[in-house]
Write a structure and sequence with these properties.
Radius of gyration: 22 Å
Largest sheet: 7 strands, mixed
CATH topology of the largest domain: Aspartate Aminotransferase, domain 2
CATH architecture of the largest domain: 3-Layer(aba) Sandwich
CATH class of the largest domain: Alpha Beta
Shape: globular
CATH superfamily of the largest domain: Type I PLP-dependent aspartate aminotransferase-like (Major domain)
Order of helices and strands: HHEEHHHEHEHEHEHEHEEHHHHEHEEEH
Number of helices: 16
Structural class: alpha/beta
Number of strands: 13
C-alpha cells in the first residue's frame, strides 16, 4: 500500500483530505466505535445490544467484582497516578507486589512491570540489542517487536513465519555479530497459531542466542495454570525473556518482562521506555495482581474459553468460512479483500454481532479478516447466535 505524496502548496502543511480519501477508497479507513458500559460477552453499541467477539478480555476479568474492588482500594490508598517514573519516586507497594507475583507465576527469578506491551517490547529489544548485534524476527511478529527492532539499530533478519529451517540457515551463516536475539510471538495475535518454541529454544541453545517470547495473548490462558507458551511446551527455564501483558487475560493495563535477576536489573538501567515514563497507575497494578490470583484459583475460566473457542470455530468452518491455521481461541475469519471485509463486519453488526474488520497494515495485503474471539463468559446461546449471524451475513455479502 502506498499513499501519494501530498502537495503542501495546494493543501496546506497540516491538511490531510487527500490521504484520508485514498485510505477510504482502499477500504482501510479506521474509526473508533463507542461501547456504552463495561466490557462483557454482550455490549451496547450505538444503543443496541450486540454479542462482542473482538475483545482481548479473554477471561472476563476486566469487570470482575474482586478485580474492581482491588483497584478501588488501591485508588483510595495510593491515588489515581504514581506521580513519577519508577526510578524517581513512582515505585509503590502495588508495583513491587505485582512483580513478585509475576515472577512466581512465570517461574523466574524476577519480573519488571512496564506501562504497556508496546513500551515493554520497545524497551526490552532496544536495551539488549544495538549496532553490531543481530535480531531474528518472525515475519508475523507484533508491530511493537517490528518497531523495537528498528529502534535498536541492530541488524534485523526476518524469517518466514514459524519456519525454523529458514531461521537455522540464517543462524549458521551469521557468526560475526555480537549479541544475537531470536524474537517471536507466543500466540500470534492475528492468526491464532502458536510459535514452534521447542525448536526455537533448541536453535537458541545451539547457536548461543537469547530467546524472547512475547506472550501477550498467552499469559493466563495457555499452559498449566495459564503460565504461557513456555509452560505449554514444558520449557520453563529454556526461555531467556518472557514478556506478557496485563491488559488481555488479566483484564487490567500494562505489561511485564520475566527472566533472570540480572536481566531485570539490566533493563531497569537501560530500558528507556521504563526509565523515562511515569509508573503504571497503582490501581492498574493492584487489579492485575488480583486477576492473577483469580486465574490461579479458577482454572475453569480458561477451560470455558477453550470450549467456547472450539464451539465457535467448528460452527464457522462448517458454515463455509475460512478460519486459517488457528490453534487457539483467536479465530481469523479470512475474507481477503479489505472492502469486502468491512462490508461483512457491517452486515454482522446489523445481525447483532460485533466483530471488527482487520486490514493492512495489521495483516498482509489480501488477507483482511474478522478477528473473532470468544471469552470464557460467553454462553453457548451467545455462540450459537453468533454462528447463525455469520451465516446470514456471509450469504448477504457473497462470502459463503
Amino acid at each position: 500500500m502506498t499513499i501519494r505524496q501530498r502537495d503542501s502548496t495546494s493543501q496546506g502543511r497540516c491538511a490531510f483530505e487527500v490521504e484520508l480519501a485514498e485510505i477510504e477508497a482502499q477500504g482501510l479507513l479506521r474509526k473508533t466505535k463507542l461501547i456504552d458500559g463495561a466490557i462483557g460477552p454482550r455490549v451496547s453499541l450505538d444503543g443496541r445490544e450486540t454479542v462482542l467477539l473482538c475483545t482481548n478480555d479473554y477471561l472476563g476479568l476486566a469487570n470482575h467484582p474482586s478485580v474492581k474492588q482491588a483497584a478501588r482500594e488501591a485508588l483510595e490508598k495510593y491515588g489515581a497516578g504514581a506521580g513519577a517514573s519508577r526510578l524517581v519516586s513512582g515505585t509503590l507497594p502495588p508495583h513491587a507486589k505485582l512483580e513478585a507475583a509475576l515472577a512466581r507465576f512465570k517461574g523466574t527469578e524476577a519480573a519488571l512491570v512496564f506501562g504497556s506491551g508496546y513500551l515493554a517490547n520497545l524497551g526490552i529489544v532496544s536495551a539488549l540489542e544495538t549496532q553490531g548485534d543481530v535480531i531474528y524476527s518472525d515475519e508475523l511478529n507484533h508491530a511493537s517487536i517490528v518497531d523495537a527492532c528498528r529502534l535498536s539499530r541492530a541488524t534485523t533478519k526476518v524469517f518466514r513465519h514459524a519456519d525454523t529451517d529458514a531461521l537455522e540457515a540464517m543462524l549458521a551463516n551469521d557468526l560475526a555479530y555480537g549479541r544475537r536475539l531470536i524474537a517471536t510471538d507466543g500466540i500470534f495475535s492475528m492468526d491464532g497459531d502458536i510459535a514452534p518454541l521447542p525448536k526455537l529454544a533448541a536453535l537458541a541453545a545451539e547457536y548461543d542466542c537469547c530467546l524472547m517470547v512475547d506472550d501477550a495473548h498467552a499469559t493466563g490462558v495457555i499452559g498449566p495454570g495459564g503460565k504461557g507458551t513456555a509452560a505449554h511446551f514444558g520449557l520453563g527455564g529454556s526461555i531467556d525473556i518472557q514478556m506478557g501483558t496485563l491488559s488481555k487475560a488479566l483484564g487490567s493495563y500494562g505489561a511485564f518482562v520475566a527472566g533472570s535477576r540480572d536481566l531485570v536489573d539490566f533493563l531497569v538501567n537501560r530500558a528507556r521506555s521504563f526509565i523515562f515514563t511515569t509508573a503504571l497507575p497503582p490501581a492498574s497494578a493492584a487489579a492485575a495482581f488480583e486477576a492473577l490470583n483469580i486465574i490461579e484459583r479458577e482454572p475453569e475460566r480458561s477451560e470455558r474459553l477453550w470450549q467456547n473457542a472450539s464451539l465457535l470455530k467448528d460452527g464457522l468452518v462448517s458454515g463455509g468460512f475460512d478460519a486459517g491455521a488457528s490453534e487457539t481461541f483467536i479465530i481469523p475469519v479470512i475474507i481477503g479483500d479489505a472492502r469486502q471485509c468491512v462490508r461483512m463486519a457491517e452486515a454482522l453488526l446489523e445481525e447483532g454481532v460485533f466483530a471488527q474488520a482487520i486490514r493492512p497494515p495489521s495483516v498482509p495485503e489480501g488477507t483482511s479478516r474478522l478477528r473473532v474471539v470468544p471469552t470464557s463468559e460467553h454462553l453457548p446461546s451467545d455462540i450459537g447466535f453468533a454462528i447463525e449471524a455469520f451465516k446470514r451475513a456471509g450469504k448477504r455479502c457473497g462470502i459463503v
